[in-house]
Design a protein that fits this description.
NADH Oxidase, 39% helix, globular, FMN, Nitroreductase
Amino acid sequence: MAARAAPSGANLQPGSFTQVKGKVREALSADLIRAWRAGEAETEDYDYFPKPMPMTLRKRQVAAAQALYGAIGVARDDRAGRDAQFERNFRFFDAPVALLVTLEHGFGSGGYMDLGMTLYGLMLAAQAHGLATCAIGAMASYPSLIRRHLGLQAHSVIVCGLALGYADPDAPVNQTRTERCALGEYFRVLG
């Protein structure tokens, strides 16, 4: 409820959350893993990353990957280890609660911004209650497969997944730290 209090343009409150559990979750994860291992590609509902990726952003992406794989002890040339870690996305990182986040087709950029505020509100509210979350952008790679498993109409855009549960502070993956841009890189004062 606290997340839905996030501001949105004209109070449209875009986006929906679907919790998947039990046999539905097991079947969805198994099918996602099968499709990913088979190299099956789907047309995504939206572009998650800019195309082409500017070099400044690519450097941040690479640094984040290095931080993650360094924290869990997976070497750059360890393809099996990297694949095993990436595959965890499709199991919602084994969190007890698995959510899929959708947006009705045609909302435009403002809908994504408003939904992002709702997502962040949910993540902050969870943290305030001692829980941890992880947004899962990889889910956007299989929109048709996910819609089929969840019984969603074609106008439902698959935005991301979200894992929710209690963090293990001693787990190496939770030791990952990424650098943030310096204030001067994204904030200007004029006048």
